[in-house]
Amino acid sequence: DAKKDLGDQIADTNTKLNNTKDQLTTQINDTKTELNNTIGNTKTELNTKIDSTKTELENKGLNFAGNSGADVHRKLGEKLNIVGGAAASTPAAKTSGENIITRTTQDGIQIELLKDSKFDSVTTGNTTLNTNGLTIKEGPSITKDGINAGGKKITNVADGINAKDAVNKSQLDNLAAKQNATDDAAVKYDDAKT
């Protein structure tokens, strides 16, 4: 009977299709689980590697060195202060650095000397300027105790006008010439000793 045979074939085909569907669903679910596990593991590994690399880079940071003192290490993201001593709060902290100021610029850090700098002493060649005054080695000096020409000529001195002005040689020569002129015209007395 053909109808029964056709029904059996349809039932058999449905069973095979259901079995194939179940197998495919199982394979898809297994593959999905495997992919999820692989993706999860890969994500975890990548996150661990990223965190490790980030920590390594942050800790590696940068080292800075100056003319003296120990190197300074900063992790990436940490601030490094580069300052002069201009804002020093104690006398011990006030070195020549108090004359230095730093400014951040678009390109980096600019280190500048203050326009109105303060020093305890400045020496250039044989000349020293300090709180005592100006001294030239083996030469003149202008100190708080006075002016010492150091055996050198003082030149280009203007004529003194006021009572406390210095006079120059020209003024003394004129005075000597006037004195000689009056000496010749003055009355002269003989020595009374005989």
From TrEMBL:
The keyword Transmembrane does not apply. It comes from the Bacteria. Gene3D superfamilies: 2.20.70.140, 6.10.250.2040. Residues 3-34 form a coiled coil. Keywords: Coiled coil. InterPro entries: Coiled_stalk_dom, Serralysin-like_metalloprot_C. The keyword Membrane does not apply. Residues 153-185 form the Trimeric autotransporter adhesin YadA-like stalk domain. GO terms for cellular component: outer membrane. This is Hemagglutinin family protein.
